[in-house]
User: What shape does this take?
Amino acid sequence: MQFESQIGDETIEVSLNDSEGKATVNGSELPYSLTIQENGRVLFRTGTKLYKVDNISVENQTVSFSINGKFVTAVVKNEEELMLEKLGFDTTAAASIGVLEAPMPGKILELLVAEGNEVEEGDPVIILEAMKMENELKAPTSGKVVSLEAIAGNSVEKNQILLEIEPRG
Assistant: This one.
């Protein structure tokens, strides 16, 4: 898995190989292990160093946490986001409340919801095929699907509205 993390002015490129317990960080390979405790604390070990990670909060690409008592905020991009950014798509734009737009041109393979369904933020709602890859599009907010513009089998353009959710609350 490939990631890029921005902490302050520093950009860190990370590649994880979970099966071998190895990470490559800015070109340097190092062994690592993760242990998740019942209280939510993550113990991160590399070589003889042990780091205690607590207070983990994720909102979109922003990850906040404390590591050995020091608070850190990072912007993290995964493989898909890095690829889309490389192709010129904006991955940091905030979604309009309740409106899901096509992030790229493609073909609607499957609708996972129908009008009237209740969804939670982050629930998969549509499968979009683009560049010979299946992309799972997720609900931008929690609420009720009030408008479903996408039709399975149809092609869509970038920024085309696919569905609208009436937010709860």
Observations:
- Residues 3 and 78 are 5 Å apart (CA to CA).
- Helices lie at 79-86.
- The two ends are 37 Å apart (CA to CA).
- Residues 79-86 form the longest helix (8 residues).
